[in-house]
Specification:
The complex is a heterodimer of chains A (149) and B (127).
Chain A (H helix, E strand, L loop, with lengths): L10 H7 L13 H4 L7 H27 L6 H11 L2 H28 L7 H25 L2
Helix pairs in contact in A: 3-5, 5-6
Chain B lengths: L9 H33 L10 H9 L1 H27 L5 H32 L1
Classes of the chains: A mainly alpha (149), B mainly alpha (127).
Chain lengths: 149, 127
């Protein structure tokens, strides 16, 4: 496929893809379009949130592997890390991580259900449900983490 | 007017297969990340749910946990590489660039799983 500059690349593909089962393509593809909220619906917001949290979680995967590598250097190195990781600032970052996990995981579950044709007509109700469930789980996790200080 | 060719079904099949793998690995991840977060962090009474050095070694040396953590590593890597692929393909890459991206992501995924496997293995052997 050649890249067309100027106009939206692959617009015909997007229109064609919307008529078929599977992933739901979006108008205005590309990372810049994720932040363009003009004349966009709930679906676009959920799609953009999934992409942004997904990139954040990939970054965290490698950060997590780097942090766990500290264990290879022995108990003293791990204890030094714990001293930093148990500060209030880092516990707040943990809450942010759990927000990312919940937003990406629950919205991904919604996308899997809609994309597989199982809940196409209920996608807005599903979105509201995951917001409620996600908020409850996030509050519970935040209280657990911050309360353990 | 240029002659038109009947569109091949192969890219569509590939798109559906990729989507099925992303969705399937995502659903598996929901289960595995819940186990990981609860078993590794939320049952611990330490600050922030972080285990001490000895606690981590004992945890990872448990055969059931070892298998779950390896499964978690493999599934999270597959899901991450597929997600990165989707994001990169959003830039409207040429077919050649897409093939190169696929190869690079496979290499990165294999390296990630290999490193994680060595890390978990070494830690489990120290318990």
């Amino acid at each position: 496929m050649s890249v067309r500059r100027g106009a939206d690349p692959g617009l015909d593909e997007i229109r064609k893809g919307r008529e078929e089962a599977g992933p739901v393509p979006r108008k205005g593809v590309g990372p810049v379009a994720w932040f363009d909220i003009r004349r966009r619906g709930l679906g676009h917001f959920a799609f953009s949130l999934n992409r942004i949290t997904g990139l954040g979680l990939v970054f965290y995967l490698y950060l997590h592997l780097a942090v766990l590598s500290t264990l290879l250097r022995g108990e003293d190195a791990w204890d030094s890390f714990l001293g930093v990781a148990t500060s209030k600032f880092f516990l707040l970052l943990d809450v942010l991580l759990i927000f990312g996990l919940l937003a990406h995981g629950l919205n991904g579950l919604r996308l899997a259900l809609v994309g597989s044709g199982r809940a196409v007509d209920q996608q807005k109700a599903l979105y509201r449900s995951i917001q409620v469930i996600g908020t409850i789980l996030l509050l519970g996790a935040a209280l657990r983490l911050m309360g353990s200080e | 007017m240029a002659a038109t060719r009947a569109p091949s079904a192969a890219p569509e099949r590939s798109r559906s297969r990729t989507w099925a793998w992303t969705a399937g690995s995502g659903v598996a991840l929901l289960v595995l990340v819940t186990i990981h977060m609860v078993a590794h962090h939320f049952v611990v009474q330490e600050v922030g749910g972080l285990r001490s050095y000895q606690q981590v070694l004992e945890y990872i040396a448990n055969p059931v946990i070892f298998v779950i953590e390896i499964a978690f590593l493999v599934v999270v890597t597959i899901h991450s590489m597929l997600g990165l692929r989707s994001v990169l393909f959003d830039f409207g890459l040429s077919e050649r660039a897409k093939r190169r991206t696929d190869r690079a992501l496979v290499a990165l995924g294999v390296a990630t799983v290999a490193y994680g496997f060595v890390l978990i293995g070494v830690l489990a052997s120290r318990a």
